[in-house]
Amino acid sequence: MTHPDTAGADKPAVIAISSHVVRGTVGNRAMVFALESLGFPVWSVPTVTLPWHPGHGPSTRLVPDDAGFAGLMRDLAASPKLREVGGLVTGYFGSPAQVEEAARLIEALKAVNPAAIVACDPVLGDGTDSGAHLYQPVETLAAIRDRLLPLADIATPNRFELQFLTGLELTTNVHLIEAAAALGPRLTVVTSAFPMLRGGIGNLLVDGFAATLAEHRRIEGAPNGMGDLTAAVFLARTLSGASPEKALQATTAAVFEILARTTKRGADELTLETDADALKSPMAMVQVRRLSTQGGRR
Fold this sequence. Notes:
By secondary structure, this protein is α/β, with parallel strands linked by helices. It contains 9 helices and 11 strands.
């Protein structure tokens, strides 16, 4: 799937568009590390710069002005080096206008390399079984839904983000399958899907109306960055030629293994620098099963 101009390279470059933190492993810090660890050169585009994840305390947001961000993205879109790129992943955006510029860059990438694979992690909100919280403006939600998702090959929403994007109440995995199948991208990985194992949690892969669930035990108090890491690793595995189910299994195992090691150390951020081997050759076992799509809405 690589462009002819990248035939001499081991892996094509990947553009990663998301937030940057000074301390920690969320946003582009997680995505770039994972992609580079798996052999992919990365073009890193920060959408907002923070000292740390806001969950760690008050944090100053440095957001590039929309005109400056647009100029940077135009430079990338017009560069002859764009032919080096075989993949692109988006995450957190600092303003709604940035979404449009990301969409234009994707269109330029697809024009020079139609085989490029685009992943959209719609970082919009989260929640629990008792409620969901949207932490992006509705304008950003609408831009991701209307401009980015139609251009994406892969989407990796959590189940609450899928609910925000579709406007549906999603209370079973069958509901998630139906919503994901209608979302737009060919492949959707719904993180924090409903578990079938007691005390578990899983990632639900939806390919058309075919669905596969990869589960592992739930670990309480997980640090941030799991969604960013999942999006990057799944894209990397896909770019490397893995089937969707194999990419799901490897991604879920790697993220679970890193999470387990991190929490055992008592760290408040994913310890990627110590656990890079888990990205390449995860040893954790995950339960993978095909799901029936029967029993949907009536």
